[in-house]
Amino acid sequence: MKKVVLSGKFLNSKINGIPRYAMEVVKHMDPLAEGMDIEICYPTDLAADKIPDLKTLSLCLLEKMEKGGIFFAAKNMLDVKMHCM
Fold this sequence. Notes:
By secondary structure, this protein is α/β, with parallel strands linked by helices. It contains two helices and three strands; from the N terminus they run βαββα. The chain has helices at 17-29, 69-84, and strands at 4-7, 38-43, 58-62. The chain has a three-stranded parallel sheet, with helices on one face. Helix 1 links the parallel strand 1 and strand 2. The longest helix has 16 residues, at 69-84. The radius of gyration is 13 Å and the shape is globular.
C-alpha cells in the first residue's frame, strides 16, 4: 500500500473558512483510515494546542517548511515529497 502524506499547513492558520473545513475533513477521515498509511506533516512552529488528537492518522514534523505565498506551497510539497522518499 502506498503512503499518503497530507500537508498540515492548515493547522497553523486561523481556524475559519478553508482551515476549518480541512480540520473537519481530517477529524472525520481519522476513524475511516484504519489500515491505511496516512500522515499529516506539520511545521515546527505549530503551537502544541493546535496539534489534533488523532487515533488512526499519524503526524510528522517537517522542519524545513517556510512561509510565503506560492513559494511556501511549492517548498511545502517538495518537503513532503522528500519526506516520503
